Amino acid sequence: MEPRDLDPKRELNVAEWVDHEMASLGHEEWQPDLHRGLALLRAPSGTTGSRRRWTWAAAAVLATCFSLMAMPGPRAFAERCVSACVSGTGWIRELLAGGASGPTPSNVYVKPGNRTMAPDFALEDASGQPVRLSQLRGNVVLVNFWATWCAPCRVEIPMLLGFEKTYRDRNFKILGIALDDGGWSLVRPYADARNISYPILLGNQGIADLFGLKAVPTTFVIDRQGRIAATHIGLCQKSEYEGDIKAVLNERITP
Amino acid sequence: MKPNEEWLDIERIFRLHYTRLAQVIARVVRDPARAEELAVEVCLKWSARRITDAENSERWLYRAAVRSGLNELRHQVRRSRYERVVSFVRGSPTPEELLAARQEQERVRLLLATIKPREAELLVLRSQGFTYEELAAILHLNPASIGTLLSRAQQTFRKEYTRRYGTPRLGSKT
């Protein structure tokens, strides 16, 4: 308000000028149509522009989706999405469960007295030979459930290769069970490219259910008597794995 | 004013306030028909909010009205900016568009859409003839600082005007 009182000649009278500008907007004597307003009030549906706009936007999005589905690329993607949602170990579930970095890691180590037997299974390896878990009795076996599309699993693989090298001569075995829907055509080139030296088996929904998998990667450490000694869900620290492996390797066989 | 259901019936509220609400909105929204629609929307929103106290209702209604008007204005400005980009591709603007852009009204609308909503609300309601006390009640402000806030809003308005269109002259368009 000061400019008006202090210096009316030199400085522009801001308040007055703004009032003048605002007055140029007009509509002072304008009277709204009461009857039209009342009609709008009594029949509100459809009059609200924003709702109509959203409806149009939703329709446009749907139309775009459908026309995209006609093309092979997005269609394959959508199918993958659907299968991921429906099957138990999908990456979408994984994303929902634990953010971008995979499921929330958890480690469970069970004392020798309280362990339960690992379910036995027989799966084919890359050369078509059946591998049975019970054949490996007497070894400490690390069973790693993974998939080629699972980023944390891919991080684990070099770690597992390291363990295999270190503990090979102490009756330590690793089994990698791949849960890819694409089968060997996806898994075999991947395993070859990474020089995975431990046996890779192709898993299925049955084995995932058998072990009660909720996410990949999930890793079980199975002791010399075929009992589950430790369960790791999600990407865990190398030291956590190594601690469990060492503990199980150092156990004496108790009758 | 007893706060019962009947008194705060939506049609009664509508009859009491519709004209003024529509006028507040029409100040900033170009299209009078759209202003009427928005005023009705404000009334409907009020009834959805179930505000039981008459005095509160009144404040709420005018606050909602000025906000919905300014929102609409901002939408319009954004849309016209988009249309300008499109028309750049399409061809030259029509004479009507050129005339509209030159008009003082359009300048004021553009400025109101550009400055802070809080300040724009103050200016619009003030130009609609609300007193300082009413302004303070509607916008939840301290009555003692309304004068300062208003003059600050006016300064902002002028600064923005100067930035866009050069030094303003009083009575350039009478």
Descriptive overview:
With 255 residues, chain A is α/β, with parallel strands linked by helices. Chain A has a domain at 106-250: 3-Layer(aba) Sandwich (Glutaredoxin), CATH 3.40.30.10. Chain A is built from ten helices and eight strands. Residues 1-8 and 98-102 of chain A have low confidence and may be disordered. By secondary structure, chain B is an all-alpha fold. Chain B has a single domain (10-165), classed as Butyryl-CoA Dehydrogenase, subunit A, domain 3 (Up-down Bundle). Helices cover 75% and strands 0% of the residues of chain B. Chain B has helices at 10-28, 32-49, 54-90, 95-102, 104-114, 117-127, 132-138, 146-165. In chain B, helix 2 (32-49) crosses helix 3. Chain B is globular. Classes of the chains: A alpha/beta (255), B mainly alpha (174). The A-B interface holds A 1-2, 12-28, 30-34, 36-38, 40-41, 44, 47-49 and B 10-11, 14-15, 18-19, 22-23, 26-28, 32, 34-37, 39-41, 43-44, 104-105, 107-109, 123-124, 126-127, 147, 151, 154-155, 157-158, 161, 167-171, 173.
Secondary structure: elements and pairs:
The complex is a heterodimer of chains A (255) and B (174).
Chain A: H1 2-6, H2 14-23, H3 34-42, H4 49-69, H5 72-86, H6 91-98, E1 106-109, E2 122-124, E3 130-132, E4 140-146, H7 151-167, E5 172-178, H8 184-193, E6 200-202, H9 205-210, E7 218-222, E8 228-233, H10 238-250
Parallel strand pairs in A: 4-5, 5-6
Antiparallel strand pairs in A: 1-8, 2-3, 4-7, 7-8
Chain B: H1 10-28, H2 32-49, H3 54-90, H4 95-102, H5 104-114, H6 117-127, H7 132-138, H8 146-165
